[in-house]
């Protein structure tokens, strides 16, 4: 699977560039996630009741650049390979709960504290896509 690309996505006005319908729905969910909170790729697929984690990851890799891509994450809380520092800056700015890395961890990068950072959807019924 390709890496998520913060550069791909919507035009400067936030509109879609002939996005597939599924991709548009995935990006809409990513935009609903509040600052400091995250959903996993699988959570997004479950929310949409369509596709799976790999399909959501592919959408984010191809089109996720104009949405808060750092809020759609791996279930294990590891930072997105190749974009760790950019994502970490966003997490710190937004106050996303993080777990400090052990000294044995490669690069000594923290992980997202999934227990505390994972968003439950809040009042999603009002804005359900």
Provide an overview of this structure.
- By secondary structure, the chain is mainly alpha-helical.
- 39% of the residues lie in helices and 6% in strands.
- The longest helix has 12 residues.
- It contains six helices and four strands; from the N terminus they run H-E-H-H-E-H-E-E-H-H.
Principal-axis shape equals: globular
Ends distance: 26 Å
Radius of gyration: 14 Å
Structural class: mainly alpha
Given as residue ranges, the uncertain stretches (5+ residues, pLDDT < 50) are: 1-5
Measured by DSSP, the beta-strand proportion falls in 5-15%
Task: Sketch the major β-sheet.
Answer: 2 strands, parallel
In DSSP terms, counting alpha (H) and pi (I) runs of 4 or more, how many helices?
6
Helix and strand succession?
Answer: HEHHEHEEHH
Residues in helices, as a percent range = 25-40%
Arithmetic mean pLDDT = 85
Total count of strands: 4
Strand order of the largest sheet: 1-2
What brief labels describe this structure?
129 residues; mainly alpha; two-stranded parallel ribbon; two-stranded antiparallel sheet; 4 strands; globular
How is the secondary structure organized here?
Blueprint: H1 21-32, E1 39-40, H2 41-48, H3 53-63, E2 72-73, H4 84-94, E3 98-99, E4 111-112, H5 114-117, H6 124-127
Parallel strand pairs: 1-2
Antiparallel strand pairs: 3-4
Could you provide a short overview of the structure?
This protein is mostly helical and 129 residues long.
